[in-house]
Amino acid sequence: MDKDFDFKLAEPTELQVITRAIWNWANEIMPNRTPADAIKKLSMEEVPELWRSIKENGEVDEGEIADVLILALDICEMSCIDPAEAIHNKMVINMGRRWKFEHGVLQHED
Q1: Do 97 and 61 touch, CB atoms closer than 8 A?
Q2: Which Gene3D superfamilies match (predicted)?
Q3: Which of 32, 42, 50, 81 is in Cβ range 3.0-4.6 Å of 64 for a Cys bridge?
Q4: DSSP states of 53-97 as a string?
Q5: CA distance 88 to 90
Q6: Where are the domains of the chain?
Q7: Mean pLDDT of the chain
Q8: What is the largest CA-CA distance in the chain?
């Protein structure tokens, strides 16, 4: 794959506005939360709910994927990470990797 891949993103300002709105809302309901709190909720509750929805219904549930995205964006805001920039940087890395499907999971080889 081309290591100079130019990943085109949606308008970053729109994503930043959404991220800030999520952060503001989350601050109202849980002002003392930490990134670790959100990561724990994401990994122990929301991702398993998303997995259950696809196993039970055969499709991704819009509300469950939204919960995952909301928490991920809140983690970004709490950690001063620009999600669009982080996605872009990681996609550049991913496009330069070799991939394999092993044990039912797509994994990079390096």
Answers
A1: no
A2: MazG-like (1.10.287.1080)
A3: 50
A4: HHHHHSS--HHHHHHHHHHHHHHHHHTT--HHHHHHHHHHHHHTS
A5: 6
A6: 35-108
A7: 90
A8: 44
Sign of CA dihedral 20, 26, 32, 36: negative
Rounded-to-integer distance, Cα 103 and Cα 4, Å: 30
- pTM score: 0.82
Question: Is pLDDT at 16 greater than 60 in this prediction?
Answer: yes
pLDDT in tens, 52-61: 999 999 999 9
Burial class (CB in 10 A: 0-12, 13-18, 19+), 55: exposed
Q: Which amino acid is at 11?
A: E
Query: Residues with Cβ < 8 Å from 57, sequence gap 6 or more?
Result: none
Q: How far from chain centre, in Å, is Cα 23? A: 15
The helix or strand, by DSSP H or E, that contains position 103, with its residue range, turns out to be none
Does residue 68 contact residue 46 with C-beta atoms inside 8 Å? yes
The pair of structure tokens assigned to 28 is: 């109202």
